[in-house]
Amino acid sequence: MSTVVLLTLTGLGLAALYFLIASGLSLVFGLAGVLNFAHGLFLSVGAYVTWWAAPHLGLPLAVVSGVAAAAATGALTELVLIRPLYTRHTEQVLVTVGLSLAGVALLQSVWGADARVFPRPEWASHVTGVLGAQVPDDRFLLIGAAVLVLVALLAFLRFTRYGLVIRAGVENRAMVRALGIDVRTAFTLVFAIGGALAGLAGILGGMYFTSVSPGQGVSLLIFAFIVVVIGGLGSVTGSAVAAAGVGLLQQFVNYYGAAGAGDVSVVALLAVVLLLRPAGIAGKAVAA
Amino acid sequence: MSREPVLRVAGLSVRLGGSHILQGVTFDVAPAGVTALLGRNGAGKTTTLRAILGELPATGSVAYDGREILGRPTHRLVRDGLAYVPEDRGVFAGLTVAENLRLAERVPDPDYALVHELFPELATRAGQRAGTLSGGQQQMVAIARVLLNPNRLLLVDEPTKGLAPAVVTAVATVLARVAGRVPVLLVEQNLAVVRRLATDAVVVEAGRVAWRGAAGELLDDGEATRSLLGVGRH
Question: What residue intervals traverse the membrane (chain A) (predicted)?
């Protein structure tokens, strides 16, 4: 029983990371139609800025700086690199892949390829007893942060004018323009939100893995893409459900199965979902 | 009242995927009443509306209230009062009726009094997802969205397509009322609706204007409607 509890909470912790990355990725693709391979860079920017700033500003302000830097990187990427290429999808992919590779190379050249020890709150190193299992408190940090983000994101989408524009734009952005709305502002906004969430995921990932390395963003991005596809492009709730499924499946199969079987099982789950429900759990057709 | 056209289209050409869809379309839209844009399926009517609205790359000239607008972004044209009701209605299925309307608000005091007077049903269905509405109800939402704001020209694409006869009559009645306030460029296949609403008509054939003149004159000419529109006398 205690093993199941520990695996469940660890799986949900991992799911929290996947959700934070995937929700931004999903909104960016759903609204702007951009498959953003540079999303992992936003994660690394958040993590490295926090790691660098923590000794100077203290951890809470460093976290704020990391999230802000990642959001700014997302917005700048959209304004400078993506905006001129909205009708050129092949070039978009090339630019975002190139930016991702260049970002990793830049981080390596500045701080080296080795992993750096990442700061974390002292209490996150403790454990709490839950139904007989000794669960590290960093799992609760991850899960709590993801739940807060989910609630805030859903409230933003439901109750604000920009949220309304984003939800409509995910369905049919041409029609949003035909109502007199400059949908490009919403594009920049979702890149900034996606960047901020990825940056937060990078910071929490650093606390969870206790280290940060230049390639961390890219490796987490692969599973986030799987979560986006399973959850349905453009759906925040779908991303949350899919992230939970992927995180739990990966943890349980990795523990009870052969080494690496967890990752294989996630890919198998993706294949099954694509066969049975090609648009994902909450997916709908996205119009131009 | 000035009789200058509200919209002057000259030599409008559109190429898509190697096809020359519009080949120098030229016509005017009167500053009042309904101008019908007619033609067989695939003649280029919807392409003409979308090119005017900046949704498609086009060459030629489109003057709106005397100002050249070709190449201007769609959202700016709409903010300048060029409103659009698309052929597929463009209703956001995942949003409620109220959200669809709220999204379309462009002014501080949107005219909900007019919308609820013309479509009282929308008030009672405010919380219903638009995707669950009937075709006629969705058309009400699509038209209501443009009526919330002050407009100087409406582009309306096949508003009666796929609707039951009773709903067609209701939509035509609303459009007649709207046309009393703002000029309308109407794409329509239902010639009974055209006869009821339109003062002027433009017929597009294979990407070119094949006929221009008074709508009544065209509809009274059985040979012209047969040869240009492929239908018998109405």
Answer: 6-27, 34-53, 59-81, 93-111, 140-164, 185-209, 221-248, 255-276
Partners of A177 on chain B (C-beta within 8 Å) are 55, 73-75, 78
Contacts of A234 (CB under 8 A, 6+ apart): A26, A27, A29, A30, A31, A170, A283, A284, A286
R_g of chain B, CA atoms, integer Å: 17
Q: In this structure, are residues A135 and A128 in contact, taking their beta carbons and an 8 Å threshold? A: yes
Average pLDDT, chain A: 90
- Angstroms from A11 CA to nearest CA on chain B: 32
Task: List Cα–Cα distances, A145 to A45, A123, A232, B40, B192, in angstroms.
Answer: 19, 15, 22, 58, 61
Q: Does the residue A283 lie in any domain?
A: no
| Four-point Cα dihedral A78, A80, A82, A85, nearest 10 | 150
Whether A168 and chain B come into contact, CB under 8 Å, resolves to yes
In this structure, is residue A286 part of a structural domain?
no
Percent of chain A residues past pLDDT 90, beyond the cut: 67
- Write out the residue range of the structural domain in which residue A230 sits: 2-276
**For chain B, which residues lie within 8 Å of any Cβ of chain A, measuring from their own Cβ?**
53, 55, 73-75, 78-79, 84, 86, 90, 92-95, 99, 102-104, 106, 145, 149
Residue A250 tokens, joined:
């990966």
Does residue A285 sit within a domain? no
| Domain assignment of residue A287, yes or no | no
Query: pTM of this prediction?
Result: 0.85
With contacts defined as CB-CB under 8 Å, which chain B residues touch A175? 86, 90, 92
Compute CA B134 distance to the chain's CA centroid, rounded to the nearest angstrom.
20
Written out in words, the top-level CATH class of the domain with range B1-81+154-234 is: alpha beta
Report yes or no: A174 at the B interface, CB cutoff 8 Å. Answer: yes
Domain count, chain A: 1
Note whether A179 contacts B92, CB cutoff 8 Å: no
Per-domain residue ranges for chain B?
1-81+154-234, 92-150
The predicted-structure confidence for A63-79, as pLDDT tens digits, reads as follows 999 999 999 999 999 99
Does A176 reach chain B within 8 Å, measured CB to CB?
yes
Please, what is the end-to-end C-alpha distance for chain B in angstroms? 33
